[in-house]
Amino acid sequence: MSVSIEDIKKLRETTGAGIADSRKALEEAGGDIKKAEELVKSWGIAAASKKADRAVGAGLVDTYIHSGGKVGSMVEVNCETDFVAKTEEFKNLVREVAMQVAAMDPKDVKELLSQDYIRDSAKNVETLVKETIAKVGENIQVKRFMRFELGV
Known about the structure:
Blueprint: H1 5-15, H2 19-28, H3 33-50, E1 58-65, E2 71-79, H4 82-85, H5 88-104, H6 109-114, E3 116-117, E4 120-124, H7 125-136, E5 140-149
Antiparallel strand pairs: 1-2, 2-5, 3-4
């Protein structure tokens, strides 16, 4: 099946996949963009599990203060290189994890990763991390976090 350049561009914009992967997914999905998105995501999650044992020596610490200033959080998320730590995808993930901690008050990293993601309850935080691993090509781990609440 032949796929159009426009469809490849659309799929790349929504998934961050490369040209070859986008073309392959569209061909396997018979041109259906939604099915192709699911294929790309599943490939990325499979690739993420292969990277889980790689050392993470770089990363970012970020904070989130909820409007009103009564709740805030600080998180450390690690990746393999400084190069990835400087990407928008990684910075966005760290920010989203900090927001999740402030909103949901998890007790530990394991609980945090298993929580439904606050912006999309169809996936959990661990899936969000794995999707970012698939995009940036490096292992990513939520190392630690702290949540602050005024008066508690």
